[in-house]
Amino acid sequence: DRVFDTLTTYNWYEQNPAISALMRAGSDQIATLSDQHQELLGRNILQAADGQSNSAEYFIDLIGEDPTAWPEHFIAGLIYECFFHESGVHRTKCQMLSQVLVCILGRQDVDAESLVSSLNEMLEESSPKENEYASFEFGKAIEIINARFSQYQDEGNTINPSLANSFDRLLAILRRLLEEHPSDHDYDEIPF
To answer: What per-residue confidence (pLDDT) applies to 4?
Structure first.
């Protein structure tokens, strides 16, 4: 409970030690949490990283080195937080999306397709977040996904067909959302 409370403080000086404790605890201890708490923890880590917590950013990079070691619902929290709030409304958080995609692509033999399929279903059912600070950078998300896929394949990797189909559906959903929430941003650089 202390870790969850600390991660929601928006204070790096409090978040970073909590994230260090989670890294020390490791995937085995995170796996002992309920599925709901694992997802919430993944969301909280992504939120901290999106808020530029260096420890959270490092933690996501560390997870990307061996994503199959981490529980499915924890990884789900990372990818879900990039696209919709836990209340079910959509918006975007693109700062760590490329790194989170590494975690998904590294789970192709486990559950990556089901994670992306679940994301697609939730996005289809979601409505926009009604908040003046909500980000609807769906164009940027599309560019990041396409760039990460290209880089992944350029490195000699393959994407299994069912996962590729799920990502194609995600891209179609994001294009529809982009039409609903046009952005006037131009994205020349994709953050890797």
So the answer is: 60
Inter-residue contact 49 to 57 (CB < 8 Å)? yes
For residue 160, give both structure tokens.
């299994």
Give kind and range of the element (H or E) at residue 174: helix 161-180
> Do 176 and 137 contact (CB within 8 A), yes or no?
no
Torsion region of 24: left, alpha or beta (phi above 0 gives left; psi -120 to 50 gives alpha)? alpha
The answer to whether 43 and 79 are in contact (CB under 8 A) is no
Per-residue confidence (pLDDT) for residue 7, from 0 to 100: 63
Q: Which residues of the chain have pLDDT under 50?
A: 184, 186-188
Find out whether 139 and 107 touch, Cβ atoms under 8 Å: no
Nearest of 121, 108, 83, 120 to residue 159 by alpha carbon: 108
Helix (DSSP H) and strand (DSSP E) numbers for the chain:
9, 2
* Side chain identity, residue 71: P
Phi/psi at 156 (5° precision) = 90, 10
Dist. CA 182–CA 177, nearest whole Å? 8
Q: What is the CA radius of gyration of the chain?
A: 16
